[in-house]
Amino acid sequence: MRLLLVMLKPLQELSCTINELYIHIKYAIDRMNNEFSLDNCLLN
Q1: What are the pLDDT digits (tens) for 10-30?
Q2: DSSP characters over the chain
């Protein structure tokens, strides 16, 4: 049982890292979308 936990620990850390990356990427995309929509408003 303990061995299983030791094996799962790196996976857990990896999933946390992926989750943080996902949040950062989503935030960046949301910001880009907001800037594009602002540009569209200014152009019209």
Answers
A1: 888 999 899 999 999 999 999
A2: -HHHHHHHHHHHHHHHHHHHHHHHHHHHHHHHHHHHHHHHHHH-
